[in-house]
Amino acid sequence: MQVNVTIMAQNSLPRRNFLSRVFVGLGAAMAAPAVGFAKSFKEAFDQTGESMNPIKKIKPLGFQWETADPFLFCVHHEDAFPKGNDKMGPDPTHFKGRHMGEDFIIKDGFRMYHGKTVPGFPGHPHRGFETITVVRKGMVDHADSMGAAGRYGDGDVQWMTAGKGVQHSEMFPLLSAEKENPMELFQIWLNLPSKSKMVEPHFKMLWRENIPIYTHTDAQDKKARVEIIAGKMGNLSAVMPPPDSWAANPENEVAVWNIKMDAGAEWKLPKASKGINRTLYFYEGEGLDISGQTVPFYHAVELHAEIETVIKAGAKPTGLLVLQGKPIGETVIQYGPFVMNSKAEINQAFEDYHKTQFGGWPWPKYDQVHAREKGRFAKHADGTEEIKS
Q: How far is CA 77 from CA 103, 174, 274, 339, in A?
């Protein structure tokens, strides 16, 4: 999928330095030219002329991961945050030498991103797509223009449909004052088809207790465990995504799988239909083998989804993320946090945001964090609450 970026004049932006805020969605702030494919392979063919090699291409990964339609991109955040102070941020002695408010270079093991007191991404707008935030370690505080809020992490997933427009903040409070606060998460941007670009905003929590885990044990008693965030594996199906998502229709075969394999474990990734885009991201371990081909660490592998793929972990436990789905196949015009199908729609998104602020900001500050003692919870726009331990 080719993503076209429309550049708009700075003087078309509203007050309070909107240009710096428009790029503050996780990953979008570091938008950079896509890294080209590092290597391609000659495909072997059987007597029917069909490809027997599941690998299309292998490419190295940067901060922002290139994805295939229906996905827009993915980012992998890893930060070794220190102990938290009384404001749930790092001690200000860590701020020296940083570009506060635009801090994306790892220093002392972490980044502040757009946060100036607490790391994270203060209030910013989105329209026309979905964010899937998969938190492996640490906590995220959510607040949005609909009045919804939450705290989630340590295996939880938030799935947000921006639809016709929403502002939200994503802050990383350093809850522990006694020990370090490591953070690891993926944020995945999933496109919406044109018919769903202007649906009502919606967010859904996929709590870790409810995410199905498929387990395969190989002949050497080594295990592969698959967290089924979207899609299905074996006889297990993910929690239903938001109703207007491209993933809500099983015919689109959207899958988001986080796979953990024991060192030396072997497992076959099942087939999907021909024409489905499937990419595997190798983010943890060393010496991954895919159907006899060695894959370097921190590389992505674009696969033929219709071919069964044999995966063998190397000498260390291995982490893999798989994104797959039927392509939407529509023109994509993206400017920062707005993803539409035409330049006119992008211009309209700016005009609408200028007029309405997508509902405004009902919170005392744009870098909203919740009380330190609060546990995992979600408060939805309709007032319903989910409380977790």
A: 13, 15, 32, 22
* Interatomic CA distance for residues 381 and 342, integer angstroms: 30
Both tokens of residue 219?
């002949």
Token pair belonging to 255: 């899958």
- pTM, full prediction: 0.88
Q: What is the pLDDT of residues 253-284, one digit of tens each?
A: 999 999 999 999 999 999 999 999 999 999 99
Bridge-based pairing of strands 4-5 and 333-335 is: parallel
Task: Give CA separation, 56 vs 44, 66, 312, in Å.
Answer: 11, 15, 18
Per residue, what are the HEC states of 22-65? HCCCCCHHHCCCCCCCCEECCCCECCCCCECCCEEEEEECCCEE
Is the Cβ–Cβ distance between 187 and 75 less than 8 Å? yes
Name all domains of the chain by residue range, CATH numbers in brackets: 4-370 (2.60.120.10)
Residue type, 142: H
